[in-house]
Design goal:
Elements: E1 5-9, H1 13-23, E2 27-34, H2 36-43, E3 49-55, E4 60-66, E5 86-90, H3 95-104, E6 109-114, E7 117-123, E8 129-133
Parallel strand pairs: 1-4, 5-8
Antiparallel strand pairs: 2-3, 3-4, 6-7, 7-8
């Protein structure tokens, strides 16, 4: 078994594209739309959506931007308390360089000491934690 993709709801598609495409270097595979009926059936959100699939060396990240946002007002039910905690990406450069570049761009970076090395997390524009690995 292997992971095919991770889908994220974003608050601003252009801001998220800037992060995932310009900073992380992912490539746009395709863009598609969901009608309100499709969004309701699939995600229990009462709004049309614009979505973009981004490809990596392996797997994809899908970004969903729902018209009007995803506030409680347009959700048909509350989201579960449990859900995505973080996901991890292997980066194609030394981790110190990657983390330094993130800090220069003002991207939040968090670190955790693990013995003689550190585990680094960056945060996307909507606060999703991304563990970075070399």
């Amino acid at each position: 078994m292997k992971l095919d993709h991770v889908a994220l709801i974003v608050s601003n598609l252009e801001t998220s594209l800037s992060f995932y495409v310009e900073f992380l270097g992912l490539k746009i595979k395709r863009e598609f739309a969901l009608t309100e009926t499709e969004s309701r059936a699939l995600f229990n959100i009462s709004a049309p959506a614009r979505a973009i699939q981004l490809i990596m060396e392996e797997g994809m990240i899908e970004l969903f931007d729902f018209e009007g946002g995803t506030s409680h007002a347009n959700r048909l039910s509350s989201p579960p308390a449990n859900g995505l905690f973080h996901f991890a990406l292997h980066v194609n450069q030394p981790i110190d360089e990657f983390v330094g570049r993130a800090r220069q761009k003002g991207i939040p970076v968090f670190s955790l000491a693990r013995g003689e090395h550190y585990v680094y997390f960056i945060q996307d524009p909507d606060g999703v934690l991304i563990e970075t690995m070399q």
